[in-house]
């Protein structure tokens, strides 16, 4: 039995293994997946000396607790939270040494939704189609963590970063999403198109890794016929029959039969990963590049 492993003591509400995802397989019906807050995942990897493609843990709301079988360096980032080692507080947003057998407890998010836990050497579960990411829609990759799960770790390749703490963006008090109209904005009435970018929405509690759902004005369609299923991309804003926009995130389906009124700029999507239910959402139209 290898000593390069983590034992999961408390899995939390939803903790998954994530890396850069598996882009390039949409033609096979395979979503991209990967960390929802990519910059946060990249930062904690840098802090522990991992390469960008190393797999990390993505927690949801109430964190997780793990016990390494050997001494490791860890870093926790993303949503701010209390971090302890055997009950003693340690730094969030910095590299921390965790002795073999000690309990690393990542607490509930004090703001935001998702925290990221990088471990020196990375989470070394078996890759599927080139990625170790858990995909909740297709079921590819490792299953979400459960109490008692044992996760293998890779071998560290670099020293950890020598910083006291790394600045990270705060979770959004208002989520501003820049959107490029189309390709199916002509399926909505002119009034609905105006309402989409002028009326406020809020993040729905029904949001998940597949999509950020919103609450607010229903968008009226100008065309009521059925739209044949067509390809959809990360950030696509699909409007289902209830008229409330849904922003597709990492585990989104690769095709959809509801019209896409706009597409969110990729740079704005990490903030969507940290927007708690009830956060105001504003869609801002920008010109096509």
UniProtKB/TrEMBL annotation:
Pfam families, A to Z: CT_A_B (PF02626)
InterPro entries: CT_A_B, Cyclophilin-like_dom_sf, PxpC
Superkingdom, taxonomy of origin: Bacteria
Keywords recorded for this protein, A-Z: ATP-binding, Hydrolase, Nucleotide-binding
Domain called Carboxyltransferase: residue spans: 27-289
Record PANTHER family: 5-OXOPROLINASE SUBUNIT C
Entry protein name: Biotin-dependent carboxyltransferase family protein
Organism: Streptomyces machairae
């Amino acid at each position: 039995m290898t000593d390069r492993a983590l034992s999961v003591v408390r899995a939390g509400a939803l903790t998954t293994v994530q890396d850069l995802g598996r882009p390039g397989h949409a033609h096979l019906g395979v979503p991209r997946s990967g960390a929802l807050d990519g910059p946060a995942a990249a930062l904690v990897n840098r802090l522990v000396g991992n390469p960008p493609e190393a797999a990390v843990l993505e927690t949801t709301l109430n964190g997780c607790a793990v016990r390494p079988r050997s001494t490791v360096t860890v870093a926790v980032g993303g949503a701010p939270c209390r971090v302890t080692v055997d009950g003693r507080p340690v730094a969030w947003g910095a590299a921390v040494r965790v002795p073999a057998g000690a309990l690393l407890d990542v607490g509930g998010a004090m703001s935001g939704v998702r925290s990221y836990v990088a471990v020196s050497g990375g989470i070394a579960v078996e890759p599927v189609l080139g990625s170790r990411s858990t995909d909740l829609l297709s079921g590819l990759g490792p299953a979400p963590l459960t109490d008692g799960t044992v996760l293998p770790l890779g071998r560290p390749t670099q020293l950890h970063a020598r910083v006291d703490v790394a600045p990270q963006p705060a979770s959004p008090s208002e989520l501003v999403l820049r959107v490029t109209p189309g390709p199916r904005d002509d399926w909505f009435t002119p009034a609905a198109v105006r309402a989409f970018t002028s009326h406020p929405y809020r993040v729905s509690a029904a949001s998940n890794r597949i999509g950020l759902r919103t609450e607010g004005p229903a968008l009226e369609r100008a065309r009521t016929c059925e739209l044949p299923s067509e390809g959809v991309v990360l950030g696509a804003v699909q409007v289902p029959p209830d008229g409330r926009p849904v922003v597709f995130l990492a585990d989104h389906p690769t095709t959809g039969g509801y019209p896409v009124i706009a597409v969110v700029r990729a740079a704005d999507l990490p903030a969507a990963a940290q927007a708690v239910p009830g956060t105001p959402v504003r869609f801002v139209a920008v010109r096509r590049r």
